[in-house]
Amino acid sequence: LKSSDVAEESFARIKESKAGRKMLLGVDRLDYSKGIDERMLAFERLLIENPKLKRKIFLLQISTRTREDVEAYQDMIHRLDALSGRINGANAEMDWIPIRNVHRMHSREELAGIYRAADVGLVTPLRDGMNLVAKEFVAAQNETDPGVLVLSRFAGAAAQMRDALIVNPFSQEDVADAIKRALAMPVAERRRRWRALMDGVEKDDVVAWRDSFVAALEEARDAGLKPPR
Questions:
Q1: Roughly how many angstroms between the first and final C-alpha of the chain, as a whole number?
Q2: pLDDT tens-digit series, residues 150-172
Q3: What is the pTM assigned to this prediction?
Q4: Could you give the residue ranges of the DSSP H alpha helices within the chain?
Q5: DSSP class of residue 228?
Q6: What is the pLDDT of residue 1?
């Protein structure tokens, strides 16, 4: 299969499995800084405070395993499995599971299809660098019916992506409210926000970063300053 075929197949499979429900999506490297525990707890709070959303939404959390030989990361896997299991046990019904907790690797092409199928992208790290997942999610969207990005204020991308719904990931209430707002957002607003975000993704790419970095070095050189080590 070509890369585009893989993405389309992935999109079709996820769309079918949604069964008409809205899908929230988290894609993270398994790390304590990504705020996955806090995200699941915020999702649980959303279900408790908005029981009418049950059966209408679910969270697909893809957490790629890393550093499996480190005990702290093994404990994290067990903790996330236990947390998602508790939330599912308390809320699931015979034909609906609130959280799909997945730990296996996915190719970039597969992820493109998954991103495209998502209605809400949850990028809520407690502390992070640029975070390319936020930009990949935006780039994969269907411009006629785009999903909504919920983004932590503590991700570096938040400085550029102001048209996302910016949240405090430490606040379950803040994240839950943002998810509810994203689910109810009219298509016209979703398109407007996506267009602004996509313009930023296309403008502030790796070439723009390289040029600005080199320009800063040249400016320091011309000013007679020594560049930092």
A1: 46
A2: 999 999 999 999 999 999 999 99
A3: 0.89
A4: 3-18, 36-49, 71-91, 108-117, 132-140, 172-184, 187-203, 206-222
A5: P
A6: 39
